[in-house]
Each structure stands twice: as C-alpha cells, then as structure tokens.
Amino acid sequence: MKTARKTSKSEGRKTRLIIDSLVKHWLFMGSLAGLVASSLYLEQTPHFSPNDFSILFLLFSLFVTVKGLEVSGTLENMAVRLEKGKYVALKLTLVTFFLSMVFTNDAALVVMVPITLAIELTNRTWLMILEALAANAGSALTPFGNPQNLFIFWHFDLGPMEFIKVMLPFSLLFLCMLSATALFLDRKAHEVSKGKSAPVNLKKGTVFLFSTLVVILAILKIIPAFSAAAVILLLPFLEPSCLKVDYGLLLTILCFMGISENFKAIFQTTIEHSRHVFLLSALSSQVISNVPAALLFAKFTTNWKALLWGTNVGGFGGLIGSLANLIAYKIYISSKKEAGIKDFTLKFMAANYACFLIGAAVFYVLRKYL
C-alpha cells in the first residue's frame, strides 16, 4: 500500500511539473507551431536578416548583465535602502519606475516585489499593483526598457532622442498619476518594518554595472553591437548563474520574427493608418502579449510611433498583456492564502484595464502631434 501511495504521489508530481511547464512555455510552443504551419503553407523557411540576429544578441546580452546584477545583490541593495523612513510607497513606486527604464520591467519587478512583500505596510496590495503599473510605464520610455522597445528601436533604425520624445508623454503621465496614488497610500500607511540592506558582492556588482553600460551603449548604437560580445563572453567566468536567463522568451521572439516574415508573404499588405496600427497592436497584446505583437506587426507597417504606443499601452490590461504583469502576479499570489487571491486579482485587473483605457485615450488625443 505504501509503495502504491508513493508511486501515486510521484506520478502526481510529474503531472504537475508537466502542466506547469506547458503553462510556462505555452507562448513559445504556440509560436513554434505558427512558424511551422506558416512555413509549410509557403513551402519555404523564413528569412532571418543579420539585423534580426543583432536584436536577439543584444537582448540576450541585456538579460545576462541584468541577471548578474540580481545575483550580485546590487539591485536588491539599492531597493532595500529605500524602504526606510517616510513616503515608503512613493519611494518604492518611483524606484520601480526608474529601475525598469534601465534594467527592464521584468528585472525591476523580480527585485521589488519580494522586497515589498517583506515590508509590514498597510495597503500593501495596492502598492504591489502600483509597482506593476510603474514597471510597464517606466520601461516604455527607453529603447532598452523592455524587449518590444529594443526590437522597434533597431528594426526601424531610430535615434535615442527620437524614440524617447515619442514615449515621453505616456511615461510622464503615468509617473504623475502613480506618484499621486502612492502619496495617497503613504497618508494611510503605518507599521513599516526596519529593513536591512541586502548583502552585495561589490566586485561582481561593479563588473556587471560596467557590462550593462556597455550593452546599453551598443543598443543605442553609440558603439558597435559586436562590442558587447567581448564583455558577455567573459561574464560567465565571473558568475556562471548569469546565464540563467529566459531562453524561452528569446526563442519565442525568434519564432515570431519568422512568423511575421511568413505572414507578410502570405497577406502581402501593409497597415499604415495610426489608428489601425495602434488598435491592432494594443488588442493583440491582450492575446499574445506585447512583445510578439510588436514583432508581428512591425513587418506590416512603417508607422513605428503607433506600433510603439500600441504595444506599450497593450502592456496594461490582462495578465498576458505583458510578461511583467505575469511576474508580479505570480510572485504575489504565491505568498498569499487562497482567500486573498480573488480580491487581489480583481483589483489588479481593474487597475490595469483602467490604465489601458487611459493610455488609449491619450494616444487618440496626441496622435496628430506625435
């Protein structure tokens, strides 16, 4: 009997692992199926340009350097210091916003959410939601804030200031809105714990900070893209765990690059009207996430401004809209009892869709001036 029970439990664990793996990698598997199906229909394989591989390499490089900063404790050390004193909600919201501008929205939330969970603070649920919104809003401002921005920046051969100028109204509006909301939370907050600075490996932190700067300069086209290769090749010798990045996302991006090429050959059409580009990319983000949406529609339009706004506004809304949403949601609910998950989910979705509608309204007001 005991042997049977052990076997049953072992099989149950294996089944859960398989299901978890399918859930985690559903977007990659779907994109791979789409790539194979569209290639079979055309009876040819998609063409990947050198620029496509440059984008993938730079994205991988950014993932590696940011992972190194996480492992070294540098990002966590910066964040923990801010929980002390007054205006904790405002400081944590702002640091999430600005961290996401430089170190990507995913990394900002991976660091900030656990820190926020460790703080005994009233209205912590709403603070968590503000951080998720701040990560999406802050990352929208820079070419290296999130994967879709990096792709659009390189695919359309844009300049840094040209890019930032287009997204400044979007990020600035949400910065003001989220800061005002955080201040409101601070007025009602109390019982803040006295956090201690996280341990940091100064040597590794310094190396990875320098490496991140090199990668950012390569992304901004100030130095050649291959310049980052020399740095990236050396980092695993310093910290092997920096290579533990999201390879599934990189493979998903590669698949969607191929799908977009195939779809372009199949449909042989273009979409140029800003309203259509925005709506298609924003709404598609709710189904396939904003990174694949950017990759898919980039080959059908030259209207990069509407595409950029659409995919960043599309980061709000449902959980699938942005991988950052999924990260924040998953970390939070894993720490809560079943009774509190439903309440958090309703608040999280309501706040996200409110920001989605606000972002869409602002685009329609400003689209003639972008």
Features:
globular; 370 residues; 75% helix; single chain; 17 helices; mainly alpha
In short:
It is built from 17 helices and no strands. By secondary structure, the protein is mostly helical.
How would you describe the overall organization of this protein?
The longest helix is centred in the middle third of the chain and has 29 residues, at 160-188. It is globular, with a radius of gyration of 21 Å. It has helices at residues 2-24, 26-42, 50-72, 74-80, 88-103, 105-117, 124-139, 147-155, 160-188, 202-219, 227-238, 247-267, 274-288, 290-298, 304-313, 323-333, 338-366. It has one domain (45-366). The protein has 370 residues and is mostly helical.
Low-confidence stretches: none
Number of helical stretches of at least 4 residues:
17
- The average pLDDT value, as a whole number, equals 84
Described by the principal axes of the CA atoms, the overall outline is globular
Q: Helix/strand-derived class?
A: mainly alpha
By DSSP, the count of extended strands is 0
Blueprint (SSEs and pairs):
Blueprint: H1 2-24, H2 26-42, H3 50-72, H4 74-80, H5 88-103, H6 105-117, H7 124-139, H8 147-155, H9 160-188, H10 202-219, H11 227-238, H12 247-267, H13 274-288, H14 290-298, H15 304-313, H16 323-333, H17 338-366
Helix pairs in contact: 2-12, 3-8, 3-10, 3-11, 3-12, 4-6, 5-6, 5-7, 5-9, 6-7, 6-16, 7-9, 7-16, 7-17, 8-14, 10-11, 12-14, 13-14, 13-15, 14-15, 15-17
